[in-house]
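Re: the 220-residue chain
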Amino acid sequence: MADEKSDATDVGKDARDAAGRVGEDLGRVGTTVKEGIVSSLKGFNEIEAEIVTLVRNTVADSLRASADVAGVSLNVSKDVVKGAISATEEVGTGLILSTKSVAKGMIMGVGDVGGDVVAVASQTVKGAVKGASEIGADVSLVARRAVDGVIEAGREVGGNVEEIARGAVGGAVEAAGAIGTTALKAVREILIGVVEGVKDVAGAALPSPRPRAAASEPPS
């Protein structure tokens, strides 16, 4: 009997030890996953910052060489967006991920040389939406990222954020409307709650449809 109790105790101890080791292993797995995610996110943030800096410096340098900053900046914005789309196609990465950084760098570069950031905000978002449609990317998500980027840049350069947001949202809606009703509906829906701090912008750029019930009521 004593031997049986001893054996049972040993088995129980072995099971507890094994469970403890499994728990430690799972704990290490959790830590490894956490560290990997943190590292990846840090790396992604660094890449985003590099894209912003690259676009900002390239745009600012190009515009400084021109006497007509306002006119040239619109053409430069088209070229920058095309370049970003071509790059994402070539390396096989998602346009959605880089759109915010490209849009942000674009506005900051134009702002550095005193260009019309409102007009460029609209043009940049239009180009991004059109480009997303051409390569089959998610138009609404690209629009969202582009609008986020130009608004963030507007805040950082001390521009008129309300006007920049209005231009960006209007540009997204216009470009989506040219693509089709499905794209327009998706872009409207994703942008309605996007413009923080400038609540009237969404209402002005994305008017609610008129209620049909009121129109169909018979006169009293």
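The radius of gyration is 26 Å.
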